Amino acid sequence: MTTTDSSHRRRASLQRLGWWWTFAVALVLGAAVIVAIAQNSHTVRVHYIVWQSRVSLIVVVLTTALAAILLDEIGGLIWRRRRRARLERRHELAELRAQGATTPLPPAAAPVPPAPASDSYV
Length: 122
Description:
By secondary structure, the protein is mostly helical. It is about 70% helix and about 10% strand. It has helices at about 5-40, 55-100; strands at about 45-50, 50-55. The chain is elongated.
């Protein structure tokens, strides 16, 4: 067995392991949600500005959790886009600097002397 075969098998087994961990975590979270629903099934009154309603407590908890997750993902998306744009600008600037270092600059033109001041106004 060569080193390449060994590393390939190890990588393949780790990739398969990821699915099992994901399944196990999803199973535990699903069980936790079912227990939470069973323990928080009583209704509560919800007031929001002029809107009011009576809903199950677990609906309020899960809606709040979903809203928090969505806001977190939106914030992360905005942050990643800004960072990606900043890195692209930095990369482009580095390329332009490298290009400028390899190509010689054209000779500078002689400065134009200022026009002589005149005492008469026409």
